[in-house]
């Protein structure tokens, strides 16, 4: 009887731990910004993995349901003088419909990605979208070095294993990423 009680407690503990891991990291984030420079502020709202961008009489955009957006920033991350919407998101697959020729089949793992979009008129246009990152981003900020050049200050983790189809992220490592012509590179 005692072994059964211990086993039941262990199962309940594991279920609670899994619920915490998958549900606790659902941040809310709000911002207003005039990303398209039309004189009217857009509203950016992230809740439960879904990002919406709205503007009265203008844009009404929502992230696709297959994306799980974790955080975003509105800043000039590429250093070209034009601010962008920078998102960290999780989704299945390393690529979208534009798979490199040397890949025979798409990997369907749930993985972390960094996407950069521009708001042109009332349309969010992808500027750059990473394939699956080798180390998932836990958090990031857009910073400037003493010369004024922008970079991403990134806290990364490591994929450990998968549970219920979702990765378990362990560890912590800090890195800086800079934009170079077509993509971000660790510096």
Describe this structure in words.
With 187 residues, the protein is mainly beta. It has one domain (27-186). Helix content is 12%, strand content 50%. It has one helix and twelve strands, in the order αββββββββββββ. It has one helix at 2-23, and strands spanning 29-33, 42-47, 50-54, 60-62, 68-75, 84-92, 110-120, 123-129, 137-144, 150-163, 166-179, 184-186. The protein has a four-stranded antiparallel sheet, with no helix packed on it. Strands 5-6-7-8 form a four-stranded antiparallel sheet, with no helix packed on it. β2 (42-47) and β3 form a beta hairpin. The protein is globular. The N and C termini lie far apart (58 Å). The model has no long low-confidence stretch (mean pLDDT 85).
């Amino acid at each position: 009887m005692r072994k059964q009680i211990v086993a039941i407690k262990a199962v309940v503990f594991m279920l609670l731990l899994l619920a915490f891991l998958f549900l606790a990291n659902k941040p809310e984030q709000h911002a207003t910004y005039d990303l398209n420079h039309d004189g009217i502020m857009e509203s950016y709202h992230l809740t439960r993995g879904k990002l919406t961008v709205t503007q009265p009489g203008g844009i009404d955009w929502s992230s696709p349901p297959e994306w799980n957006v974790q955080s975003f920033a509105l800043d000039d991350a590429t250093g070209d003088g034009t601010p962008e919407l920078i998102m960290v998101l999780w989704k299945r697959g390393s690529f979208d419909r534009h798979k490199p020729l040397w890949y025979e089949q798409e990997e369907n793992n749930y993985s972390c990605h960094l996407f950069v979009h521009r708001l042109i008129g009332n349309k969010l246009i992808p500027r750059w979208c990473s394939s699956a990152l080798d180390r998932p981003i836990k958090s990031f900020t857009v910073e400037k070095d003493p010369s004024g050049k922008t970079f991403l200050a990134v806290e990364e983790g490591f994929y450990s294993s998968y549970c219920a189809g979702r990765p378990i992220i362990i560890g912590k490592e800090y890195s800086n990423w800079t934009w170079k012509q077509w993509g971000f590179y660790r510096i």
